[in-house]
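Hey,
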Amino acid sequence: MKLTKSFSDNLNQVIKFCDATSEGEWCTDVVRTKDTSKNCLFGHIFNMGDDQKESNQWWNWFEENVASTYMVYPVNDGTNPKYPQSTPKQRCIAYMRDLLNGKEKTCHQHLEDYFNSSQAAGKRGAE
């Protein structure tokens, strides 16, 4: 699968890919099981590539533009109370749909909020 320039097209591709996986192909607490039969969300994203280079591109795109591992692991592993679905697949798809619909913030949005609050705090301190 190829990345496009469109955030929503790419994220929709990830959602569609993950939706096509079986519940039994998902795991928690690790990216991929030792026997490679199960993955967390990032393992599935990596599997979207046709080769190592493309797989890395998908992983990097997702982590840099959508959500970092620190944002995804609590959803995948069931510790984020906002996503109480019973399986990692269901939780991750719900989370990605919320990202797509603007109900959750992406990495960039969180960084922008942090930058803006830091700037505002700096201005308050200078007054």
